[in-house]
Amino acid sequence: MKQGVLTHGRVRLLLSQGHSCYRPRRTGERKRKSVRGCIVDANLSVLNLVIIKKGEKDIPGLTDTTVPRRLGPKRSSRIHKAFPSLQRTDHA
């Protein structure tokens, strides 16, 4: 999907240095490539998104559940901070 191409299908564009979707091999080289427009429709099978701001409602199955951390801390100071009962006590 190329930003700025206002269609939902594929378009053949002449791309050069500085465009996304193309890296020229020689100086001044241009190439006609087929790119998809930036408008979303039902023909897309996968769409990657990033949530940038929390809204008023939760998104079911995505923001309404919390996933517990799988791994614990490695650094000893963070282990002591997470589990204060494991701190060493000197028996004199």
TrEMBL record:
One of its GO terms (molecular function) is structural constituent of ribosome. GO terms for biological process: translation. Keywords: Ribonucleoprotein, Ribosomal protein. Residues 62-92 are annotated as: Disordered. GO terms for cellular component: ribonucleoprotein complex; ribosome. InterPro entries: Ribosomal_eS6. Residues 71-81 have a biased composition (Basic residues). Pfam families: Ribosomal_S6e. The keyword Ribonucleoprotein applies. Belongs to the eukaryotic ribosomal protein eS6 family. This is Small ribosomal subunit protein eS6. It comes from Balaenoptera musculus (Blue whale).
